[in-house]
Amino acid sequence: RKEVEQDPGPFNVPEGATVAFNCTYSNSASQSFFWYRQDCRKEPKLLMSVYSSGNEDGRFTAQLNRASQYISLLIRDSKLSDSATYLCVVNVYNQGGKLIFGQGTELSVKP
Amino acid sequence: DAGVIQSPRHEVTEMGQEVTLRCKPISGHDYLFWYRQTMMRGLELLIYFNNNVPIDDSGMPEDRFSAKMPNASFSTLKIQPSEPRDSAVYFCASSSTGYGYTFGSGTRLTVV
Prior knowledge:
The complex is a heterodimer of chains A (111) and B (112).
Chain A: E1 4-6, E2 11-14, E3 19-25, E4 30-38, E5 44-50, E6 55-57, E7 60-65, E8 70-75, E9 84-92, E10 99-101, E11 105-110
Parallel strand pairs in A: 2-11
Antiparallel strand pairs in A: 1-3, 3-8, 4-5, 4-9, 6-7, 7-8, 9-10, 9-11
Chain B: E1 5-7, E2 10-13, E3 19-24, E4 31-38, E5 42-50, E6 53-56, E7 65-71, E8 74-79, E9 88-95, E10 102-103, E11 107-111
Parallel strand pairs in B: 2-11
Antiparallel strand pairs in B: 1-3, 3-8, 4-5, 4-9, 5-6, 7-8, 9-10, 9-11
């Protein structure tokens, strides 16, 4: 079983739609959680950290459920520029600075 | 800050040749990571350093791969001899606390 699992998609949605991505992680010692965005043929970039209480950054909302070992990302009012691959990422307490990346979920926003 | 700088951006080489990928981390960052990305396997951590010392190289696929960090501003990933299955994008990343990595633009390696 992979340490971080995501639905690879692709998710094809119209502009303005709300879309949600889910992610599960296997190691209960995971302590930090992130969403990264990767555009085609580019490097991954940090989109937002995920906090236990849930957090929002503009149109983006991240949620964490430690009991279920589940992370989500909600994008509201999606834009064409949101088209990218979204990577779920965890850091495990006893593995130092190492981040574990999910396979990514591809999003395509259409006009 | 120029960010994490990787070179070359693209590398095409013949099977059996030695390949050296280079990385300059962000000044002041004490962690450096080498990742490989393929369609099939996604992003895989190969090795990471803390204060120039290798901490975890369990992701290095085999002895053909080696990585060094002689000082805080430079690291190399070497493949010798290279094989077609090594074709991938290799990313270097650095961070100051182990969180919130900054990635370089990557090196796209093609072994023919």
